[in-house]
Amino acid sequence: MAKIKHNNFLDTVNEVFTDAKEQGVLHLYAEGDSFTGRKIRVKQKDLFHFGTTGYLGLEQDKRLKGAAMNAIDKYGTQFPLSKAYISHPLYRKLEEKITELFNAPTIITKNSTLGHIGVIPSAVEDGDAIILDHQVHWTVQSAANMLKTRSVPVEMIRHNNLDMLEDKIKKLSTKCKRIWYMADGVYSMYGDVAPLGELMALCDKYPQLHLYLDDVHGMSWSGKNGTGYVLSKLNELPENVLLITTLSKTFGASGAVAVCNHKKRHHKIKTFGGPLTFSAQLEPASVAAAIASADIHLSPEIYMLQNELLERVTLFNTLLEETDLPLVEKNNSPVFYIGTGMPVTGYNFVNRLMKEGFFVNLGIFPAVPVKNTGIRVTISRHNQVEEMKGLVDAMVYHYQKALEDTHATPDQVRKMFKMPVLNELPKKKIVDDFHIVYEETIQNIGKEEWNNLMGKKGAFDWDGLLFLENVFKNNKRPENNWDFHYIIIKDAKSVPILATFFTYALWKEDMLAPISVSIKLEEIRKEDPYYLTSKVLGMGSPFTEGEHLYLDKSHPYWELAIKQMLDKVEELEQQFNSNWVVLRDFENEEKLSQLFHQQGFIKTVMPDSCQILDLHWKTIEEYPEALSTRSRKHFKKDIQPYEERFKVVYNNKSTPKQIDQFYELYSNVNKNNLALNMFPLPKKLFTMMAKHPNWEFLVLYLKKEYNVGRSHIPVGVMFCYKNLEHTYTPAFIGMDYDYTDEHQVYRQLLYQTVKRATELGFKQIDFGMTASFEKKKVGATIIPKTSYIQAKDNFSLELMGVMQNK
């Protein structure tokens, strides 16, 4: 299998966060000598604080602060010993109060992250299985994925999709003892909640089902004694539910709590829970503050605080109802999410609100899909009526301005969040003088014009695209029917600024995933052939490789032309309801990368492109001297001595029997190349290649003396396209793997391609993607490539992450 580098998820997140940081909306520092909770000082300006997760404002309560200061005075800043040996004097009191609070056995942890890492591996036993809601907090997912090393199955479902959950339960029920479904009680971005009633009904239906619920965002502001949203719905904790919540955020102190009514499971976790044993214990100040907060939670005062917050939440909901702001989820949680769609609009909106005197959070990938960027407004008891009204007024005014600044409309955003549209007036052109050419067949575009812009680059000059249009239509299998879409953007003088084409086709979503993921998915596809496949609106086509975008960067409007192209693509995306949009085969250009990200795309690594950019030698005899010293040695050792073993045929008109042979060789490679996992191309393609003047088959036959028992059977074939007498493009390859190693078939095919292109007088060779190490040896220049993807949601990306190394 070809080895290619795959995109590192953390690298993608780093780029997204770096862009947000440069826009001044992330990784900020609060300033000032004191903090009250109502305002926060940022960049030397006092802002009303609508970004806290301390919804009840207890972090500023004098009783908690006094208890913390008193504990430091008595016990010091920390108690540097593992709890496995001894806990400091205040710990027992805290444990007793928290147990009283929940009326169930509890375990105090340093924080919720360490809580998950300690509790999940202890609670989930070998022979159990895990199902993750794909929006469950990242720390839960990270802890769950640790169990793959113990061969615990880890599956994932779409957010709150109970049909999908039940289907997973049925499949796992015969294989596993217990099935753990892991979800949040209240989700941190949109403020939506887990369907707890339905989940408990599933538990009744399937006794194997256990729930692991992270309720850190539901704590204190909801439930009896402020025990959170989950217990407000369940009333008491069943043995098959394990609850993780927090003493931080709304509780006003530090630490987290695991609540477990299953005695044996509780004992196991508490006795040895990994980091629960080895990590440092909570500092005396944190424990003392938590005790003070627990006293408030155990008193009637907690309901007064909850009601005060609820009044503010209700008011804010009422204020928003009087606007057209796109509130993504309406309920009684103190978390509100206003969608902006594209990151660039989100940056603009956040900065505008900060200048107006309001601090809010940006919701950004990976917490939400890139195209579902928005602002998260959180309401706390610190917020007063006047600033809440002021924030809503500011949002109404600046939301429209942010959209205008970034060439977006309210209905565009609403469509991204699947919300009812306002039926607004058509959007104005970005530049009145732009002329946009859009066609669905290359036949409606002048051959000379297209070839001047997009010719000489691969198998997608005018004739190459007409060929592909004829091949990929009226086929039986859905993956072999493509729609073509051509876009040319010109200025007022009809000078082209941009040209490209897209295809709408069915892709395997793991096309660029690690091999380990594709192997697992192909096993599933033996029973379900179209599992994890999606209709994709992709630049270029699944067949072609190369520079699919003509862009005149010397033109003053080139960036606006990109935006105009993306608007047209979005229009097509909504028309087709496609799941993914892919812009592909770009060199790593910082300006383009930033522009695409701000328009809702994330960058992913493509396989390197391999090209011989200049066939400057006059004859093939001169070719070895053009190679590097190392490559020349490789040529003399692994290529030249094997050439005599083969008969080379350039086949322009093949018989049906020969096409069958060539297709079998191609299929061998396709099945073996999961590093670039694509649907197999139809035999119709190769039949039509044999009839087209621009295609030829470069075929290797082993001579009789090297092929005992088999005569005139091809062992290798290169399917080559001749582009405008300029670029020779070996688009696909086929091989018989029984002969590959012994006779160096692959290397010989590469060399014979160079030889043929030289003889025909071509200027360059486009070797395509993968196997860059081998192609470099024959003189190819290796060009790193990237693509940019935009998905409706993060489910597939996260699911494949769960499957990796499973």
From TrEMBL:
Aminotransferase class I/classII large domain residues are 48-384
Cross-referenced InterPro entries, in alphabetical order? Acyl_CoA_acyltransferase, Aminotransferase_I/II_large, AON_synthase_class-II, BioF2-like_GNAT_dom, PyrdxlP-dep_Trfase, PyrdxlP-dep_Trfase_major, PyrdxlP-dep_Trfase_small
**Domain BioF2-like acetyltransferase positions:** 631-773
Entry keyword set: Aminotransferase, Transferase
What's the domain of life for this entry?
A: Bacteria
GO molecular-function annotation terms?
A: pyridoxal phosphate binding; transaminase activity
Q: Keyword Transferase, does the record have it?
A: yes
Query: What are its cofactors?
Result: pyridoxal 5'-phosphate
Q: Matching SUPFAM superfamilies, A to Z?
A: Acyl-CoA N-acyltransferases (Nat) (SSF55729), PLP-dependent transferases (SSF53383)
Q: Does the keyword Transferase apply?
A: yes
Write the protein's name: Aminotransferase class I/II
Q: Which source organism?
A: Flavivirga eckloniae
